[in-house]
Amino acid sequence: MLTNLHHISIVHCPSIVSFPQGGLPTVHLKSLRVEDCEKLEALPDNMYNLTSLQEFTIKKCPSAASFPQGGLPTVHLKKLIVESCDKLAALPDNIHNLMSLPELTIKNCPGIASFPEEGFPTNLTSLCIHKVEIYTPLFNWGLHRLTSLQNLSIAGRCPGVVSFPQDEIDMKLPTSLTSLTIEGLQDLIYLSNKGFRSLTSHEYLRIERCPKLAYFPKNGLPPSLLQLHIHQCPVLQQRCQKGKGQRWPELACIPEVIFNCYKV
After folding, report:
1. How far are the Cα atoms of 79, 137, 160, 165, 176 from residue 185, in angstroms, in the given order?
2. Which of 6, 30, 124, 181 is most buried per CB count within 10 Å?
């Protein structure tokens, strides 16, 4: 019977528009994947009742405009992936209450113009935000409150952002951070000394497609850093040429440095 289902995948169903009235008839569902359903407009309206749900993925559903009223179940959800949903205007209303959620990924959702004022779930360990058209306030997301966050990945144009973390809004990163990826920040010029000073556990840094980036933090990168990957950042790469670049001495103590896929 449907009530005993643990896993449901709905993939490549071009004609489906909505779920049956009343939603999904199973309280034991642990994972739900909805992908490549181009006409799907509405998600199950009883999702908040799926109290056993641990993973929810929605991808390539360009007609889906919103999450159901009441949001997502707050008890056991461990992974939430939202990707390539063009019309989706906002995250679930209760996303800040998903206290068991460690992993959140939001990619290529241009309709999401803001995040909930209450912020993200404070127990997140991994947060990935790529190609989401959020401009103002850009990085005032309360990231410093995510005291368990280990992996942070941000990609987008972010016009007007010249520093990371942003000095102008006194942006802070959680001290728990071990991995950081910054991609596609077109106006980024320097990495903030204040922002990186507190990263005592930082081991992996990847910077990609930041054409104006020229400066590392004044006091250097965290001494805990083990891997530095820099791709398509021409100004910074020139300053970091081995043996002759102005910034090369700052990189000499990092065990692994890679420029444009080539190990230095």
Report:
1. 27, 15, 9, 12, 23
2. 124
| Backbone φ, ψ for residue 202 (5° rounding) | -70, 125
Q: Please state whether the peptide bond connecting residue 116 to the residue before it is cis, i.e. omega within 30 degrees of 0.
A: no
DSSP three-state, residue 79: strand
CA atoms within 13 A on the CB side of 25: 6
Reported as a pLDDT band with limits 50, 70 and 90, residue 1 is very low
Q: What is the DSSP letter of 215?
A: B
Q: How far is residue 181's CA from residue 158's CA, in Å, rounded to a whole number?
A: 14
Nearest Cα residue to 31 out of 47, 18, 20, 19: 47
Peptide bond into 165 cis (omega under 30): yes
- What average pLDDT does range 174-202 have in this prediction? 93
Residue 121 tokens, joined: 């779930």
CB 234 within 8 A of CB 242: no
CA distances from 4 to 46, 75, 78, 79, 142 (A): 16, 19, 20, 21, 39
